[in-house]
Specification:
Strand content: over 45%
Shape: globular
Oligomer: single chain
Number of domains: 1
CATH topology: Maltoporin, Chain A
Radius of gyration: 24 Å
Structural class: mainly beta
Helix content: under 10%
CATH architecture: Beta Barrel
CATH superfamily: TonB-dependent receptor, beta-barrel domain
Length: 665
């Protein structure tokens, strides 16, 4: 069975997947389809995961990969058509953390790890940069997504230093044999509008293509009338064509190009001022272009060679009050690997070269160019029908931080309806000036980086799942230890740095994260119930009597409940409730701990033929942080920021509604 599943995986490993199944995320209709097509090899080919590199069928892979399936993506696209923030935020163990209250930028934290450690990929390619900018999460529409794969914990052995905390791989739709597409129009009660489209079609027998476009507008919102933007305004347009080619001998090529332009504004509005009497307008203009390709060529029956590459260029023009900053980010990847399999093993060996460049026209002292050649390998071994192991390791030769070795081992034990996985990994992250605290204020008050060491982490997890008919349950225990965490520190001796007020340093001691995830899914006829709970105990070295203090903006308890009633082609009605517990706050003069809060939402959709009408109500309790405390600080912080951190919602009750028209077969 191992050899057969690997042969199936090898035939479509590098093509963006069409559909997946996962013991933690599979839906009842997937099981029905699998039973109906149990002798159809093409149906089996679709049930696999790509983020673990060897393309294993997900239920047989020792590397735990969670899947957000197409059905869930379509539901979340109705709630937030403009970006993927809600899509990933409502996944267990995943937290979308706002990094700039002025501009609304955010990153993704996996199991409490810092958001800068999460590698965001598109079809396995770093099209958004090796170190994804926080604002990038808000610039990716979910329109053309088929699935999303998530690996939590260190994945540096698979993808290098940018994946210290894990990987989120966005898998695009693959064109079918017929012309198809959709157009979605959405408006919100907060003066936001979205228009997205997806069109796919075969061109020749061997070639097909798709094009995704999006236009998005959001007006600046000052919900508490204090003269400061609670919701940033933006205008954004994007386009992404994709091409898929496959010949009769099994070779295939995937090529994608993308362009996105956005103007985003925040800070003070009109003639309003901050407490020192000055205006503080904030803006960011972005132009991003990228290109990527994946080519796979079989070499006989059991071996194949793969070449992939990507390039990304991103220009920014920032305004932070009276300070203007212009800069450019570049990211490049070229990689080649050979893979093969036998009766009990599958293996892969590859070479990679990554480059990350930053060039500031305003503050050239922060310019850097990281060149990182690497060697990586993976070995999957099936010890028996119930036991599988996966070993992966990577050695990177970083131009700034030297040789870095990143191992990972995973174990799968799957008797009958049980699935038990264990994983242990180590990895590194190459520091840059762009830690979370700098997103809000830019580089003007930051001293040049000196004597900074790479950040390193050790992660481990145990996952236990049980599936019985329509009931799915799982529990995950996880732990992470992080050394040399980079953080912002106020400079006491200003004579050394003139106008520089803060610097980035490696924190003393370890950051320790321990936690547990619980998940329960049940399907009764057309109604799905999903319940989740996350416990996180995250601490860092501090000055308390115990020598430890809680990690900021990390709730110890969070939970969720989703009830969805859906009849395909007819109607959908959903209710969701999410609880976020109290959080430790830093540098907040109004409080040391946040309040706990609930987020409630209702979603409804009616489909008549190829037209679907939908309405979605978010934040029914009208939770808003500025109801309790001001967002603006009484005086400017040494770093230059004028706001507290966002620990709650800041948009209040919002309704969005629209129409989706699907065409083609």
């Amino acid at each position: 069975m191992f050899k057969q599943s690997l042969k199936i995986a090898a035939t479509v490993l590098l093509l963006p997947a069409i559909s997946y199944a996962n013991e933690n995320n599979a839906e009842h209709d997937h099981h029905e389809e699998a039973e109906h097509h149990e002798h159809d090899e093409s149906a089996i080919e679709r049930i696999q995961v790509r983020a673990s590199r060897l393309g294993r069928i997900v239920t047989e892979s020792a590397t735990r990969t969670e899947i957000i399936n197409g059905e869930e993506i379509q539901e979340k696209a109705l709630m937030r058509p403009g970006n993927i923030s809600m899509l990933v935020a409502e996944t267990g163990g995943v937290r979308v953390q706002t990094t700039s209250p002025s501009l609304g930028s955010a990153n993704i934290r996996l199991q409490g790890l810092y958001g800068r450690y999460t590698q965001l990929l598109s079809d396995g390619l770093p099209l958004y940069g090796g170190q994804t900018a926080s604002i990038g999460l808000l610039q990716i529409p979910p329109t053309d997504l088929a699935n999303v794969e998530i690996i939590k914990g260190s994945a540096s052995s698979l993808y290098g230093g940018s994946a210290l905390g894990g990987v989120i791989n966005l898998i695009s739709r693959t064109p079918s044999d017929e012309y198809e597409g959709e157009v979605l129009v959405n408006v919100t009660s907060k003066d936001g509008q979205d228009i997205t489209s997806y069109v796919a079609s075969p061109i020749t027998t061997d070639l097909s293509a798709s094009v995704t476009t999006g236009f998005h507008h959001q007006a600046v919102q000052d919900l508490d009338d204090d003269g400061w933007a609670d919701m940033a305004g933006y205008d954004r347009g994007s386009v992404r064509p994709r091409f898929y080619w496959q010949d009769g001998n099994g070779a295939n090529l995937y090529v994608t190009l993308g362009a996105m332009k956005e103007q985003r504004t925040g800070g003070t509005i009109g003639d309003a001022t901050v407490p020192d009497g000055s205006e503080y307008h904030q803006s960011q203009d972005t132009l991003r272009t990228d290109v990527g390709f994946i080519y796979d060529q079989p070499l006989g029956e059991v071996t194949s060679v793969n070449v992939r590459g990507s390039a990304m260029n991103q220009d920014h023009a920032h305004e932070y009050g009276a300070v203007s900053e212009d800069d450019n980010h570049e990211s490049y990847l070229i990689e080649s690997s050979v893979s093969g399999y036998s009766d009990e093993t599958a293996w892969l060996v590859g070479l990679a070269f990554q480059s990350e460049k930053f060039d500031s026209d305003t503050y050239s002292e922060f310019n850097y160019s990281y060149q990182v050649p690497g060697l990586f390998s993976q070995l999957d071994y099936e010890a028996s029908d119930d036991i599988s192991l996966s070993f992966s390791a990577r050695s990177d030769w970083h131009s700034e931080y030297g040789t870095q070795v990143s191992p990972r081992i995973s174990l799968l034990y799957g008797p009958e309806n049980w699935t038990i996985r264990g994983a242990y990994g180590q990895g590194f992250f190459a520091p840059s000036p762009f830690i979370e605290d700098i997103d809000e204020v830019g580089l003007s008050r930051l001293a040049p980086l000196e004597n900074i060491e790479e950040e390193r982490a050790t992660t481990a997890s145990i996952d236990i799942s049980y599936v019985l008919d329509s009931l799915e349950t799982s529990m995950t225990l996880f732990a992470s230890d992080i050394d040399n965490v980079t953080e912002l520190e106020t400079i006491d001796d200003l004579n050394d740095y003139s106008d520089k007020k803060v610097r980035i340093v490696n924190a003393d001691g370890e950051t320790e994260i321990r936690g547990a995830e619980l998940l329960l899914r049940y399907r009764w006829q057309d109604i799905k119930f999903t319940g989740s709970y996350l416990y996180t105990d995250a601490t860092q070295a501090g000055e308390s009597s115990l020598g430890r203090e809680p990690l900021a903006l990390t709730p110890q308890h969070s939970a969720g409940l989703v009830v969805m009633w859906e009849e395909h082609g007819s109607h959908l009605l959903g209710f969701e409730a999410y609880y976020t517990g109290t959080q430790h706050l830093e540098n907040n003069p109004y409080r040391e701990r946040s309040d706990a809060y609930w987020h409630l939402g209702l979603l409804g959709q009616i489909t008549i033929g190829k037209v679907s009408w939908f309405v979605n109500a978010e934040n029914l309790l009208n939770v808003r942080q500025t109801k309790d405390d001001p967002l603006v600080l009484p005086e400017q912080a040494p770093s230059g920021r004028w706001t507290t951190d966002i620990w709650s919602r800041n948009d209040g009750f919002t309704v969005n509604a629209g129409v989706r028209y699907q065409f083609g077969d």
